[in-house]
Amino acid sequence: MDDELNITYITLSGYVEVNKYRYVYFLIMFTIYILIICFNSTIVYLIVIHKNLHEPMYIFIGALLLNCVLYSTTIYPKLLIDFISEKQIISYSACIFQYFIFYFLGSSEFFLLSAMAYDRYVSICKPLQYPTIMTKNTVVVFLVLGWFIPACHVAVLAIVSAKTKLCDFTLKGIFCNNSIYRLQCVRSSFITTYGVISLFDLAIFPMLFIIFTYTRILLISYRSCKEVRKKAAQTCLPHLMVLINFSLLSAYDVSIARVESNFSKTARLIMTLQIVLYHPLFNPLIYGLKMKEISKHLKRLIRRNHTGEKPVS
Question: Is the CA virtual torsion 64, 67, 71, 76 positive or negative?
Fold first, then answer.
């Protein structure tokens, strides 16, 4: 606590031998952060400049990858600063802000994946109605709701947490997540109840909707011709891979913060880093390699950089 400025500081104690390996940590995480920005930005760039990718499915993919960049930017710059700092601390107000952005963008992932699932359902199961259902206005509404609803939900938890009295000023982690609740003198029943409601609204219900939607797609595709089955496999498989990956990491984040565990400090650090490493790094790889149209433009981009050809829309 800084009495002169009346600022409460939190010590981040999740780092392992940071004084000994600070420059190794910094180099590795800086490289990963640059790769995340480059990989995701490249796919978003391709979606923006090519008119044949200005379709709802690709717009949602672009929004998801942009979300990944923002999600990573919430964590990585502070990690990099901590690696080269003598003390790993953060003001409580900045901690609450990081908590808000982290869960707001994380929850948005489920909503964007839900929008993708609905888009695929209409495209495969109701192809004749697709142009009238998935209009530009529909896409805009899905995108706005995909960011607005999570922001409102998480803002309530962030505001209440900011006003809660703290009795502990050491966070067992490397960034501010649900672990901040352990710093509070008394765990608020409102935060607990509202947190469970938010978990259902922001993660479980969207995930159930996605599972239901893809189940319907699989059933209809199974009864359809080979061409429909092929289309379903090509476009739905990447989305399912992303969903499974993010769901497992989200489940870990909730459990590690809420449940007391006997994990060693090193194991906890490694597992926590996976939350912010795999998802934003592998999403663009999954979409870039598995989505046929994006992969085609990506290969052209790589070939053009070698030969000096002009871009083709």
Answer: positive
